[in-house]
Amino acid sequence: MRKVVFLALTALLAAILFYLSRFWFLSLWPRSGLFGFEALRPQGGLLARWLRGTDAAPFELILWAIGCFLILTWAQKLYDRLTAKSETGEDHD
Fold it and tell me: Is this model's pTM higher than 0.85 or not?
């Protein structure tokens, strides 16, 4: 059961990272934004919007890739800590 929960959390994290990128193509909520928040527009691409007007704007894709790598690495380390066997050799499941 624990693996299913972690798999669902990983899928949610991947969807959030995908939504932040320029590759989001789904329009699942109205133009007014998710839950009425205009900042959460249905077209995604939030990172490009946040970087617009800065010197980092041309590097949006590489910044997104580095950010995804770091976030997924931290998620893996957290998973490893939560599922590690105790010193007595018993599993936490």
Answer: no
